[in-house]
Amino acid sequence: MFADKTMETGASAGTSDLTLGTSVSGWKTWRSQKADTTVVPYFAEIADGSIWEVGYGTLTYGSPDKITGRVLMLSSTGSLVNFASATVYVMSIPNAAILNHLIGGGGAAARPGWLPIGGRWRDDSAGLGTRAIDYIKTGSGASANSETGRLDGASGIYVASNAAPIRDTTTSGSTIGINDRGYIVNHDTTAAVRVAALPAVATATAGFYVGIYADGIFPVRITTNSGEAIDNSVVPPGQVVWVRCTGAKWLTQGSATQALIGRRQTVTTGPLSSGAPSFLATASGLNLATQNIAAATPLIVRASNGAVDRWGLSAGNLTFSSLTDATTNYLYVTVGVDGPLTAGKTTLAPIYQESGTPATTNGQFTFNYGEMKGYLGNGSSAPQAYVAFIGEATTSGGNITAVTAYAYNGRYDSGYTATLPAGGIGVTKNHNIGCLPLAFEFRAHCTTTDAGWAVGDEISTKNMTGYNGASDTVPVIGSGTKAMTAQTSGNPFYVLHKSTGAVTALTLASWKYRMTADRGWG
To answer: Distance (Å, rounded) from C-alpha 54 to C-alpha 172?
Structure first.
């Protein structure tokens, strides 16, 4: 930027660019000191010193050479001094104005022209008492700057904005290395689950930390190369989880993994067919394998232990071996400390209750949703267990005769069925929640204006009555652990007219219905 003992005589036609001409004895020429298009600070004046200006500009080789610049100080008013036709001495003396401008970071709304790539400058155009933004020049374009921090003058707070460096693994998993310390390792999860493998604790040593990012609709599973335990090992889509080595084990920082979509203590997501879970296959014999589970359609399970959840993920099919014959087998998975799923089964239906003493019977799982904690009996005690039930298999004659995959997230919506059922006809839907829902409902949806109700209106059975020819009746909605039924009698659906309030029978063909069930906790 600066040049030593450099001067040439020149001229400026009015307020135009400085045109360089003759070298001055004892001084170096501008061309001998600086390359073409270099930004240089300069001082220009006429012989008696009465007309002068200080600034910086771009040295451009030509016939003649020129300096095109920005003026910081001058002897007259205006943006450029008018040297008229006088001889001008253009020298390289970096005076106080130039140095102050340099030290101050060139404070202005526009980036200083003399700033090289990698240099920093401050935009204080709003005033230091209001706001000042620090930038680093990252390219040659006018907007090629990166913000590195800003001062809030009103509150006197300076906040740095140094982003963590990123390593992109594109469409594969990753092996985290020592050089990744402090990095965010990005995984493209738009098409499948990825795996991030951490180094051994002994290799990483205490204080090593790294961010794992799932950039897509699928999560990233974190594993350890030497089998060290790590809880919360599933990185939710679109989030970063920071992992730290204590010197003895790995820890995930914060609660980002708790934000993965889905309810607690349930199967969160997995393969679907026509909107329903499709991860259990029919099979012969007493061994049952799952189906459709892969990196692009993983089975994700959330098991709770009070304030802490453990996420489990399988990107491959599981096998439930040696099911008990002539009974119902309740299928569950145990979530390991670093996220793997282990298949298990019991002939005892799980108990879900608000609170109470867990059963110690061997194979009996009890979940107290008041404390969000599960226990698995072993015959003498019931220790806490990261267990979540995923379905059922019925067996008979040495074969599996039926399978049921539980609904994701403990919720069910049948979708709409055209025309309300006639009197005396029961309608049953399999919600497959796996426990008694705390909320279940039958709703009628208007498709053609009827009884004053407009298209799109919905009415719950709580606001309906029926008539069986002798007395009024009420539609009954009941539910078990896997199915729910709506039962009516006689003329099934009478409601109050929306406008008049008169009791009016609904036209069955003017409505459609849906049935919903919700586990109601967690």
So the answer is: 57
- Which range of 228-232, 305-309, 494-498 scores highest in mean pLDDT? It is 494-498
CATH architecture, domain 410-518: Sandwich (2.60)
**Do the strands 157-160 and 145-152 form a parallel or antiparallel pair, or are they unpaired?**
antiparallel
Query: Under CATH, which architecture does the 166-259 domain have?
Result: Sandwich (2.60)
d(CA 212, CA 183): 9
The answer to whether residues 443 and 458 touch, using CB atoms and an 8 Å cutoff, is: yes
Tokens of 341: 């799923």
The mean pLDDT of 80-91, rounded to a whole number, is: 81
The neighbouring-strand residues paired with 465 are: 494
116 versus 412: the higher-pLDDT residue is 412
User: Is pLDDT above 80 for 283?
Assistant: no
Q: Please give the single-letter amino acid code of residue 75.
A: S
| pLDDT band, residue 256 (cuts 50/70/90) | very low
CB 174 within 8 A of CB 194: yes
Does the pLDDT of residue 232 top 70, yes or no?
Answer: no
Single pTM value for the model: 0.63
What secondary structure letter does DSSP report for 294?
B
Of 392 and 103, which is predicted with more confidence? 392
Cα angle 393, 394, 396 (rounded to 5 degrees) comes to 140
pLDDT at 109 over 70: no
Q: Pull the structure tokens for residue 42.
A: 């300069």
Residue type present at position 451: A
CA–CA separation, 176 and 194 (whole Å): 13
CATH 2.40.50 fits 266-406, yes or no: no
Q: Where are the beta strands (DSSP E) in 1-156?
A: 7-11, 18-23, 39-45, 52-60, 66-74, 88-91, 120-123, 131-137, 145-152
Contact between 172 and 215 under an 8 Å Cβ cutoff? The reply is no
In 3D space, the residue among 207, 193, 299 whose CA is nearest the CA of residue 247 turns out to be: 207
Give the C-alpha distances (Å, rounded to integers) separating 401 from 26, 289, 327. Answer: 105, 14, 10
